[in-house]
Design a protein that fits this description.
The protein has eleven helices and 15 strands. By secondary structure, it is α/β, with parallel strands linked by helices. Helix content is 36%, strand content 28%. The two termini are 37 Å apart. Among the domains are: 149 residues, Rossmann fold, CATH 3.40.50; 62 residues, Alpha-Beta Plaits. It has a six-stranded mixed β-sheet with strand order 7-8-9-4-10-11, sandwiched between helices. Strands 1, 2, 3, 5 and 6 form a five-stranded antiparallel β-sheet that branches. The protein has a four-stranded antiparallel β-sheet with strand order 13-14-12-15, covered by helices on one side.
Length: 306
C-alpha cells in the first residue's frame, strides 16, 4: 500500500510582479517523514511554506493537505491539524513561557495539560515561570517549537528553526525534531540552507533552486548519487596507464592522480603489487567519494552558497 502524502502541491506558483519566486512546484511529503526542504537563501523555501500555510496566496497551482484540496472553505479546518514556526517565534516578552503558551492554548482550543507536555518535550519545564525577555535565543526558539506543538498536530512546518543558534542549540533543536515522528506521530517539514543540518535530521529531501524543485526523493537515494572511486598516485603515470589498460581498466586523470572505478580490497592489493613489480613508486592509494555538498552544488548551481 503506497504511503499517504500529507502534503501535495501541483504546479504551485507564486509571482510578484514580473518576478517568479516559486515556479510550478510539485512537492510530496509522505506521512511520518522528516522532509528536509533544502536550498540556498532566496530559493523560494519560505514562500512555498507560507503558501501551504495560507499566509501567501498562490498565483497558480493547487495544494492538498491530508488528502483534501485546500480552498477558502476548508483552509482553517485543515490548518487546525498543522503547527508551524516560520522565521522567528512571536511572544510576549513580559509574560512567562507558560503564560505565552496558555494564550496560544486558549486560541487553539486544545487541552490545558498540553502546556506541561510540550514544555517537557522542548525541555523548558524548569523555565516555565521565567519571563521570556530573560530567555536565551535558543530558549525562545524552543518556546516557539512548543507553541507549534500545542494540540499535537499531524503536521509540523519549521522554517529555518536553527537560525541564529549556537552549536549546542543547533544540536538540541535537531535532536528534538528527530524524535517527533516516532514519539508523537508528527510529520515534519523543516527548511534549511545548510546541507549538513538536513543530512542529520531528515529522511526525505526536496531541493529547490530559483523557485524550481530540482530534486525530490529519500535522503538515502541522494546519498546513492555519491560516486565512489579509487585514486592512485605513482611516479610515472604513462606506465601505470598502460598497465591499467592491459587489465581492461580505463582510468581518468585528475592532476597527479589516476581515478579508477570502485573495486574491492583484494583487487586493489593485487593491482598495487603489479604496479610496484614494474618498478613504479606507489605514493598514495585513496578512496574518494563525491560528497553530498558536491551533489548539492551540482543541483543548485556553483554560484549558490551553502
Amino acid at each position: 500500500m503506497p504511503t499517504q502524502n500529507l502534503i501535495e502541491t501541483t504546479d504551485l506558483t507564486k509571482q510578484y510582479g514580473k518576478v517568479i519566486c516559486v515556479n510550478q512546484l510539485n512537492m510530496q511529503v509522505p506521512q511520518g517523514a522528516i522532509y528536509g526542504f533544502l536550498g540556498p537563501n532566496g530559493a523560494g523555501k519560505s514562500t512555498t511554506l507560507k503558501m501551504i500555510l495560507g499566509l501567501a496566496k498562490p498565483t497558480n497551482g493547487s495544494i492538498t493537505l491530508f488528502d483534501s484540496p485546500v480552498n477558502e472553505k476548508n483552509r482553517i479546518k485543515l490548518l487546525a491539524d498543522t503547527g508551524s514556526l516560520i522565521e522567528s517565534p512571536s511572544y510576549y516578552g513580559h509574560l512567562t513561557g507558560e503564560e505565552n503558551l496558555r494564550i496560544i492554548q486558549t486560541l487553539k482550543g486544545c487541552p490545558e495539560q498540553d502546556i506541561a507536555k510540550v514544555l517537557k518535550i522542548v525541555r523548558l519545564e524548569d523555565a516555565r515561570k521565567k519571563q521570556v525577555n530573560h530567555y536565551s535565543l535558543g530558549m525562545k526558539q524552543r518556546l516557539g517549537l512548543a507553541a507549534a506543538l500545542l494540540g499535537f498536530p499531524k503536521l509540523l512546518i519549521l522554517d529555518e528553526p536553527t537560525n541564529g543558534l549556537d552549536p549546542a542549540g543547533i544540536q538540541e533543536m535537531r535532536e528534538l525534531i528527530r524524535t517527533l515522528p516516532s514519539s508523537y506521530g508528527i510529520t515534519v517539514v523543516v527548511s534549511s540552507h545548510l546541507l549538513s543540518e538536513i543530512d542529520q535530521m531528515a529522511d526525505h529531501v526536496g531541493i529547490i533552486r530559483k523557485g524550481e524543485l530540482v530534486y525530490q526523493n529519500t535522503l538515502e537515494s541522494l546519498h546513492s548519487h555519491a560516486k565512489q572511486q579509487i585514486a592512485i598516485r605513482v611516479n610515472h603515470l604513462p606506465i601505470a596507464i598502460d598497465i591499467l589498460h592491459q587489465r581492461g581498466i580505463e582510468p581518468t586523470q585528475e592532476n597527479d592522480y589516476l581515478l579508477l572505478p570502485m573495486v574491492d580490497d583484494a583487487y586493489v592489493a593485487n593491482l598495487c603489487q603489479q604496479l610496484v613489480s614494474q618498478n613504479l613508486s606507489l605514493y598514495r592509494v585513496e578512496k574518494r567519494e563525491k560528497s553530498l555538498e558536491d551533489i548539492f552544488l551540482s543541483l543548485t548551481g556553483k554560484e549558490s552558497s551553502l
